[in-house]
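Pasting as-is:
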Amino acid sequence: MLASNTGTDTPVEIFFKSSKLAKVLNEDALLKRHYGATSARQIRLRLAVLRAAPTLGHVPTQPPDRRHQLKAERKGCFAVDAEHPFRVVFEPAHDPIPRSPDGGIDLQQVTEITILEIVDYH
């Protein structure tokens, strides 16, 4: 899907890998049931930061959010920290993914993401 967001005033659009994940992350009672009250609060905060950013490049790389790009089998994905040990894992939802001149992902052009999972991958 192509992005229509120019990255100036519209926040990042968030999609979900599955309808089940969308339901869990959008219904407070389900979120608490799956992750506990403390983790649910942190996950909600991270989703709010992602939703408020005009582009992925605007999501902080410093704690508590700590946006970071993943490697190995998760190459092309990103994560933000939630309550330890959980991470919110997502990928750009663009086709094609915007690239910078060096071939990396151009974070200033990423305006749509797909949440893949909430996981402890360590």
